[in-house]
Amino acid sequence: MAKKSWQSRMSGAVDELAVNFVESISVDWRLYKYDIVGSIAHAQMLSEQGLISKDEFRQIKQGLTEIAEQIEAGKFKFDKSQEDIHMVIEAALTKNIGEAARKLHTGRSRNDQVALDMRLWLRDCTETIIERIMKLQEALVKLAQKQGQVVMPGYTHLQRAQPVLSGHYLLAFAEQLQRDRQRFSDALKRINVCPLGSGALAGSSLPLNRRRVMELLGFAEITRNSIDGISDRDFCAEFVFTAALTAIHLSRLAEDWIIYSTQEFGFIRIGDAYCTGSSMMPQKRNPDMLELIRGKSGQLHGNLTALLTMLKGQPLAYNRDMQEDKKQVFDAADTLEATLAMAAAIVANTRFNPDKIQAGLDEGFLDATALAEYLVRKGVPFRQAHQIVGELVAQCEAEGKSLAQKPLDELQKACDKIEADVYENLTAENVVAGYAVEGSAGKQQLQEQLDFWQEHLKRTVEK
Ligand code: ARG
């Protein structure tokens, strides 16, 4: 078994059980690119500060670049006895270039090194996720442009409430995702801070130039306090929370669409590629991808709970517990990335069934609230209007009619303020045409939203 860099302090006895228990290379190998980029920047700064020679820096850079190439080509063996990605790479570098490699860790600890790697990894990952959220928003906007004019029931308590345009319904999800994107962008500000130079916890007595490393790695700031610099994992927790909330939004969309694609609803049809059959029932077309989007959201809750619980009892500064952060962060990121891609594909391959939706629109008194508002416009206090319409609904229900099917004289019996123009306010179509307030579920408001999204997504894509 290979000797570790800190081995000289120990008696020499090694228990395989402990070696396997403490290793993180099986998880943190994914940080290799960032570990190498970080080490090259650190070494460059060391040479600029005269702490290592120009030639040593050249050798280190060359050696690290070759290791990166070997890893990319799948030709590198990650040695588990070297514990983690930092020690594996340093050991390989030492083997390859000898003496110069022994100077790389000058003024650095694995504690600030791992914090750096995680920040670099999350910076890239957050950008990928923001892109994917945008792709999903684009798919929603496209569907809203294509089939957004379908008048459909809106629900509260999953009971028919008021009519809405399908485009308005779809763009509600674009809004949720917009907040997710904003949260990720905001998290990026706290991710994009350079901890290198914090050392093990107290910094260093060597003349390191932290701002130079920050600059070389494209960070916006450096951490102000070395203890915080190495013990902070807030940026991980924030990332996982934001990912979990995004997954909840996707889960809610999935739940809706699972319901909407049932025989009973039949509002939408999801592309065949995103459904599966049954091994026993030949007729089945199950929305498994949506169910998995819903199911996988549970994974992200788990990641968040595990991460917060792992952090909770830790004294300052570094503790090995923190090694467990990677599992949660990587897993949350992987699951969210896959889920976002799948959601975008499903949205792009889903169609509304306008005929089926239209056929059921007369049921459920979707126009009841609009009738009450009509009465308000005729001078009836809202509470009284509510009561009048409630009684009319009860009558219609008993008669098996919709409100629009009720003759004028019967309506007028309920309230003498009602005139012939009442029918312009009844039926789901008329109600949607009458929505007057900004942000409502009607045509004009939908157009305003589509204009916003078109402009907004174009701008962010171009940026
Ligand atoms: N693999 C470790 C981690 O992920 C790296 C830091 C180890 N530091 C230490 N002092 N043992 O946290």
What does this protein structure show overall?
This protein is mainly α. It has 3 domains: 14-106, Orthogonal Bundle (Fumarase C, Chain B, domain 1), CATH 1.10.275; 111-145 and 163-359, Fumarase C, Chain A, domain 2 (Up-down Bundle); 368-462, Ribonucleotide Reductase Protein R1, domain 1. The protein is 61% helix and 5% strand. It has 18 helices and 6 strands. The strands form 3 sheets. A two-stranded antiparallel sheet has the order 1-2. Strands 3-4 form a two-stranded parallel sheet. A two-stranded antiparallel ribbon has the order 5-6. Helix 8 (210-216) links the parallel strand 3 and strand 4 (221-222). Helix 4 packs across helix 5. The radius of gyration is 30 Å and the shape is elongated. The two termini are 51 Å apart. The model has no long low-confidence stretch (mean pLDDT 96). The structure holds arginine.
CATH architecture label name of the largest domain: Up-down Bundle
- Class of secondary structure makeup: mainly alpha
Looking across the biggest beta sheet, what order are the strands in? 1-2
CATH superfamily assignment of the largest domain?
A: Fumarase/aspartase (Central domain)
Helix count from the secondary structure assignment? 18
Q: What is CATH's topology name of the largest domain?
A: Fumarase C, Chain A, domain 2
Which descriptor suits the 3D outline? elongated
CATH C-level of the largest domain: Mainly Alpha
Q: Which percent band covers the strand fraction?
A: under 5%
How big is the Rg? Answer: 30 Å
What summary fits the major beta sheet?
Answer: 2 strands, antiparallel
Cofactors, ions and other ligands in the entry: arginine
Q: How many angstroms does the end-to-end distance come to?
A: 51 Å
How much helix, percentage-wise, in residues?
A: 55-70%
Extended strand count: 6
Order of helices and strands: HHHHHHEEHEHEHHEHHEHHHHHH
How many structural domains are formed by the residues? Answer: 3
* Average pLDDT taken over every residue: 96
**Contiguous runs where pLDDT drops below 50 for at least 5 residues:** none
